[in-house]
Design goal:
By secondary structure, the chain is mostly beta strands. It contains four helices and 24 strands. Among the domains are: 69 residues, no CATH class; 67 residues, conserved putative lor/sdh protein from methanococcus maripaludis s2 fold (Beta Barrel), CATH 2.40.420.20.
Amino acid sequence: MTLFSYTGLLGVRCLRIRKFVNPKCGIVMSGNGKTLACVVAVLALTFVTACGAGNGNTGNEGHADASAEATPRLVTVTSGTLVPTLSGDGTVHAGAVFAVTAPAAGAFEPSVGSGDMVAARQELGEIGDTPIVVPVEGRVASLTDAGANVPRNYPIATISYTGFSLELDASRLLRMIGSSDALSGRFQITDGQGPTECAAVMPVRAASANSDQPVPDAGSADGSARLTCLIAKDVNVREGESGTVVLTATALQHSLLLPVSAVAGRSGTGTVTRVSGDKREQVKVSLGASDGARIVITSGLNEGDQVLAEAPNLTDKRTP
């Protein structure tokens, strides 16, 4: 029986053993101390090698970890579909006063008067050939003058709704999409009703007591733009309950997308770190809508570009 030693590592020779191996303990029975030492050394090396292989340890873990840490994680600009989304918490209010806005620019011709009761989906008037309808039943609290030439999104009527509602600050979402016309929403009452569709999502307004004209947005004192989720009257909620509202807009097709975590900035413009080979540079990008996880890149990057997965630190203008 011959054992082949790892001469380069242990400095032992190949030895021929003339005795036998005890099957109970695996030790070569020999009076030759050198022979026993050689066997023990080889067995020890074999054990270490086997353990290392079993644990996936090649002896270069430290180098591998260091290499992994040195390699930055990249994400790629992709083209896809995004549904602009905003969520927020609010409190259930009894009653709501909301605005019906102009879907297009032009002269407004009303078909109802201030103080009238209107039904859900009733026409309030028209601008050109475009009819303007109210989404829920209510009372017309104020109305723009007949023949007034108004811009798109102008509040032409204020409606008082005798039902429950949930409000939230939607400034960021409205900046992203430009209009509340195509918004829909769902709400979940904490430990209660839901998730349930909003009867309508409308801009919050306040009615003037002395004029037929709408007055500024009720939430605009701090520069915010508030929307109200109108709750259908057959839904069982109570005033003062807390809930979460999720608003969604029309899906945006064929948009350039990045994870929001890769972009410094959320509204209008932002910065990313573009990587090309060994070169890194901070690039300003124009931003569009977001769904909370991804954000639309409207300019500054092309599909297939790679950027660092972590947003750049804007306090340090140096690029790595």
